[in-house]
Write a structure and sequence with these properties.
The complex is a heterodimer of chains A (269) and B (150).
Chain A lengths: L18 H31 L5 H12 L8 H15 L9 E5 L6 E4 L3 E5 H6 L3 H16 L2 H20 L4 H37 L7 H9 L15 H15 L14
Parallel strand pairs in A: 1-3
Antiparallel strand pairs in A: 2-3
Helix pairs in contact in A: 1-6, 1-7, 3-5, 5-7, 6-7, 7-9, 8-9
Chain B lengths: L1 H34 L17 E14 L2 H13 L4 H21 L5 E13 L8 E14 L4
Antiparallel strand pairs in B: 1-3, 2-3
Helix pairs in contact in B: 1-2, 1-3
Classes of the chains: A mainly alpha (269), B alpha+beta (150).
Chain lengths: 269, 150
C-alpha cells in the first residue's frame, strides 16, 4: 500500500455560514416568535379576560396585595383621603371604593393596586409642595383604574413570567437576554399608557379645581433633581419627566385650561 | 440596563477575540500540517515486518479548546431552534487537528504512526450560570522507527 501525503486545501468539517448571519437569523426568529406569543396572549388577557373580571374578584385580589402595606388611620391619611374623595366625585366612571395608603418608604413612587387601593410612598409625599400637584398624581393613579391598567399590567406580567419560565427555564445569559428584550417591548407599551393617564389626570384636575395650576410642578422638580441623558428613559416604564411636562403643557395650551392659585399642602403630622 | 450592557460587551469581546484566536490558530495549524506532511499518520493497524522495526512506542497528543462567549450564546440559541451546531464545528475541528499535530511532534524521528485513534471528551459544567464549554481531543497511535528507510 502506497502512502500519499495530502494537505487539506478545503475544510469539509466546518461551515462557511458567517456566525453573525446565523446569530441574526436565530435571535430574529426566536425573539419574533416570543414577541408574537407575548403580544397575542397579552391582548387576549387585555380584551377578553380583564373586562370580565368582576369587582368582587378585583377586591379580593386587592386584599392579597394589600397585605404588604400598613393600613393605619392617621390624620395624614385622612387628609390625603379627603383630597382623593374630592377628585373621585368628579370621576365619571367611579366604581370602586378608592382608598389611600401611605407606605413608609423613601422611594418616590405611587401605585394603583387592584381593588381601588392607591399606595403613596413617603418619599413622594416629602417632595410634593402643593395640594394641586398631589391631586395631579392622584388623578394619574385614578386614570390607571379607569383604564383598568392595574389589571392589564398584571395579566401581561403573568404572561411574561410564564413564557420565560417555561420556554427558557434556567437563568443563563440567553434567558436574561431574551427576557430583557421582551421587557423593552413592554416598556414601550407602558409609556403610552402612562401618557394616556397623565391626560386623564389633567382633565380631572380641571374638573375638580376649575384650573390646572401645579399640574406639571412635580415632574419639573423631579427633572431638576436628577438631570437625565436623552436616552436614559427610552426603555423605562414611564416617559421622562421632561417629556411629561411638555406633553401636559401642550394639552393645557390646546384645551385652554386656566392656571389659578395653588393651594399649599397642609399635611398633619 | 447594566445587565444588558454587560451582556452586549461580553458578546462583542467574545466575538472579536474568538475570531482573532481562531484565525491565528488555523494559520498555525496549516503551517505545521504542511511541515509535518512527510510523517505518515494512518489509522491502519497493519505493521511493517517485525524484523524491519527498530523501535515502536506510544505517542499521544491532547488539546483542550474553549468556545468564546459569542459562540456560547449562538449555540444556546441554536439549542432552542435545533439544526446544525455550526458554532461548535470549528472548535472541534481545531482541537482534533491540534491534537494530531502534537502527537506527530512527539513522534519526531520515527517513520510512521500507525493505528491512530482520536477520542474526545467534553469539559463543561452546566450547573453554574456561565458554564464552561470546552472540548478535549486526545489523539494516540503507535510510532514506528524502521531499521532503514523505506
Amino acid at each position: 500500500m502506497k502512502y500519499t501525503p495530502k494537505l487539506l486545501t478545503k475544510n469539509v468539517n466546518t461551515s462557511t455560514t458567517h456566525p453573525l448571519r446565523e446569530f441574526a437569523i436565530l435571535t430574529g426568529g426566536i425573539l419574533g416568535a416570543l414577541i408574537l406569543v407575548y403580544v397575542l396572549l397579552g391582548f387576549a388577557l387585555e380584551w377578553v379576560v380583564v373586562p370580565r373580571i368582576p369587582q368582587s374578584v378585583e377586591r379580593s385580589l386587592g386584599e392579597l396585595f394589600l397585605g404588604n402595606y400598613a393600613v393605619e388611620d392617621s390624620p395624614e391619611r385622612q387628609y390625603l383621603q379627603g383630597i382623593l374623595d374630592r377628585l373621585v366625585e368628579h370621576e365619571p366612571s367611579q366604581t370602586l371604593d378608592y382608598q389611600i395608603h401611605v407606605e413608609e418608604n423613601p422611594m418616590v413612587n405611587a401605585m394603583a393596586l387592584p381593588g381601588g387601593h392607591i399606595v403613596l410612598y413617603q418619599g413622594l409625599l416629602d417632595r410634593v409642595e402643593s395640594e394641586n400637584e398631589l391631586a395631579m398624581i392622584l388623578g394619574h393613579e385614578l386614570g390607571h383604574f379607569a383604564e383598568r391598567h392595574h389589571l392589564k399590567g398584571l395579566g401581561r406580567g403573568l404572561v411574561l413570567l410564564v413564557l420565560s419560565a417555561t420556554l427558557l427555564g434556567d437563568q443563563s445569559g440567553i434567558t436574561q437576554f431574551l427576557q430583557d428584550s421582551l421587557a423593552r417591548v413592554e416598556s414601550r407599551f407602558s409609556q403610552r399608557q402612562e401618557q394616556q393617564v397623565d391626560e386623564f389626570g389633567l382633565h380631572l384636575l380641571q374638573k375638580t379645581y376649575h384650573h390646572v395650576a401645579g399640574a406639571t410642578d412635580f415632574f419639573e422638580r423631579i427633572q431638576k433633581e436628577e438631570p437625565e441623558g436623552p436616552l436614559s428613559y427610552f426603555f423605562a416604564s414611564h416617559p421622562s419627566p421632561a417629556n411629561r411636562v411638555d406633553f401636559l403643557n401642550e394639552l393645557i395650551a390646546s384645551a385652554q385650561y386656566p392656571i389659578g392659585e395653588k393651594t399649599p399642602l397642609d399635611l398633619p403630622e | 440596563m447594566l445587565d444588558l450592557a454587560l451582556f452586549l460587551s461580553l458578546l462583542t469581546i467574545g466575538y472579536f477575540a474568538g475570531r482573532v484566536t481562531e484565525h491565528r490558530h488555523y494559520k498555525s495549524i496549516l503551517l505545521r500540517e504542511k511541515a509535518s506532511l512527510r510523517l505518515p499518520t494512518v489509522t491502519s493497524n497493519m505493521l511493517p515486518e517485525v524484523d524491519q522495526i527498530a523501535k515502536s512506542f506510544l505517542v499521544t497528543g491532547s488539546c483542550v479548546i474553549s468556545i468564546d462567549y459569542f459562540k456560547r450564546i449562538l449555540a444556546g440559541l441554536r439549542n432552542i431552534m435545533g439544526g446544525r451546531m455550526t458554532a461548535y464545528e470549528t472548535l472541534i475541528d481545531r482541537a482534533r487537528r491540534e491534537a494530531i499535530l502534537r502527537m506527530k511532534y512527539e513522534a519526531l524521528g520515527s517513520h510512521i504512526i500507525v493505528n491512530t485513534r482520536v477520542e474526545t471528551a467534553s469539559i463543561f459544567s452546566s450547573t453554574s450560570q456561565n458554564g464552561i464549554g470546552s472540548v478535549e481531543v486526545f489523539a494516540y497511535g503507535t510510532a514506528i522507527k524502521l531499521k532503514k528507510t523505506l
